[in-house]
Prior knowledge:
- Chain A is mostly helical.
- Chain A is 75% helix and 1% strand.
- Chain A has helices spanning 2-26, 30-49, 60-69, 75-119, 124-162, 165-178, 185-194, 196-202, 209-218, 228-239, 245-276, 298-333, 341-355, 360-368, 376-388, 404-414, 419-430, 436-446, 449-477, and strands spanning 50-52, 335-336, 339-340.
- In chain B, helix 8 crosses helix 9 (230-239).
- Chain B is built from 10 helices and 8 strands.
- In chain B, 40% of the residues lie in helices and 17% in strands.
- Mean pLDDT of chain B is 83; it is low at 1-6.
- At the A-B interface, helix 1, helix 2, strand 1, helix 5 and helix 6 of A face helix 4, strand 7, helix 6, helix 8 and helix 9 of B.
- Strand 1 of chain A pairs antiparallel with strand 7 of chain B.
Amino acid sequence: MEKLRKMNRKRINRIISLSEELRWKIGDDFHDNLTESIYADASKIVEDSVTYTNKKSRFRLDVNIDKIVTSKIWGFPIMLFILGVVLWLTIIGANYPSGLLSELLLDITHPILKNFGESVGLPWWLNGFLFDGVYLAVAWVIAVMLPPMAIFFPLFTLLEDFGYLPRVAFNMDTMFKKSGAHGKQALTMTMGFGCNAAGVIATRIIDSPRERLIAIITNNFSLCNGRWPTQILLATIFIGAVVPESYSSFVSLSAVIGIAVLGIFFMFFFSWALSKTMLKGEVSTFNLELPPYRRPVFWKTIYTSLIDRTLIVLWRAIVFAAPAGAVIWLISNIDVGNESIASWIIHALDGFGFLLGLNGVILLAYIVAIPANEIVIPTILMLTIMVTGISGGEGAGVMFELDSFNAMGDILKEGGWTLLTAVNVMLFSLLHNPCSTTIYTIYKETRSVKWTVVASVLPVIVGLIVTFLVAQIWRILL
Amino acid sequence: MESKANNTCDNCIHFNVGELKKLGIKTANFDFVVALAGNPNTGKSTVFNALTGLRQHTGNWPGKTVTRAEGAFEYQQQKFKLIDLPGTYSLLSTSNDEEVARNFILFGKPTVTVIVVDASRLERNLNLVLQILEITSSAVLCLNLMDEAGRNNIKIDTRTLSKDLGIPVIPTVARSQNGIPELIQTISELANGKIKCKRYNIKNIPNNIEKSVQVLSEEIEKEYPNISNSRWIAFRLLEGDTQIIEALENGEIA
């Protein structure tokens, strides 16, 4: 065996020394020469087998579209416009099905389940735990989150299939370069608008480790699908309500876009700050190919994005909502002293929450919702109902009408929400720690505790500072 | 029931594709390994999905598949394991995704390599095709996006192309499944040795380099008679690729 290895070693050495000798002889343009020969071969082959029947019309349409959507003047307005249309369709499309679902799941099914539990003789605590805790949380998630996701995702996927994303990257390339980051970060950022964990994985397309880390750490500033509905909901309920009804959808839309743009601003700012401090280095250059526009296979895209994205994400939300519902019910129903655990925590957090223009319920909800951003709003609603003692879903108090956004608004206002609370929750939803899936993905991709901690803590600190400042300024001015 | 081969149906692709089983991610106990290579954004993942029945996410932007994805299909009682490699423009440089693709084609020794190209951008795509053909001749060219080529008034003489490259050429429109039955049939025939490919060697190489490559590859063949792609290894050695040297030492290539 040893002998064999020695022999092998000898043979290899002979080949290597021969190759070195030859390399010396042919000089250092070997690589270029080889590349040129390949291109020469390719052009000969194409000459023999490819014919253009009408040379002029090739790609003319694509080129013309690109001239507009990547132009200096129109590039950014068109980007904002497209984002606006997608969000607008989501806002106007989601309210009605959301109302239907909450009537079905909360007003009709929930009492039936509770009565059923009583009739089969479940003890009150088990009945409450199962149907007021686990079931309600899941039902809220479906009613609140499913409709916006089922509209937003397919629209986003259609854009992706059409070939618009590389144009976004093209438009933003110079800005990324100026901030010391890689131009391909535009692609990972847009993926982050779908899901931050997916965005973090997508950073593998960036070769330089420095620029990749920047892309990973700042990906959380892209609003993900778990947070879009939160933004849309709060903007519709609180900000849209400030102006006359004919403007309300336009104003709430602008607010959501404003938050998304603010996220992009923070992403650039921290890319720049990181590249000037912890992650110094050169910006690498790269080639970005603008692929041809392709007409998406419409129904197939709708189908796969519903099945693959919407339902998977919804399923994940449900999986995390069920235990969260259990936790919420338990902490609201187990008393320590003469108050429930939830009340204790909420009251303890209320002071700090006030400083941030938030409240204890919201902060507790963000702790409960670390596994998934999708369950923040349902958690807030449940905690508010349980703590304020208003009854949600059945009987007196809040009724769920078809217009479910207003019903949710009533619950929140009952819980002491003002316009400032809504604005700051929207800001905090943009600027807080990534969900646990994303944190785990960041660790898997970087294999570094340090960078995982940086990526997780940085956005929370920013969020605390921003909400604090907004709350103080707001209270001084208004 | 065994049927005789003289039944005309048996030779018809569309009949045989009836025996296609898309196995999704059940990749155990395969008979052949098939690699899927090509430039970014040519529809590799769409071809992958069409063959395996998986719904690997596809999107119209380059660099979407960042790792290799695996799937499988069964055709005429033989199982094929399919590897979707990240899209690359070349195999000659050092970036991560190119390494994944290059190493798999070289060391993974797929039985068949399906090279997916964008028919409307053939010339640029050929750069990668010719490099792959230096490594392996057991390949099939999947001329994808034929509909776009048609829309852009591009006509491709697939017979001449096939002759020039020495491998079968199958025009497809993967997203509407056009040409996929033919592709499957060809993969199967290649795997079972029913189609013989002709080795393609890059021709327009300057004389002094060509000579050096020949000397070196002859030497490699002398030491390792089992190596089929000595010319590619010679290219890499002349480039000073340390991975190739390591691979020779570990006996991964021979």
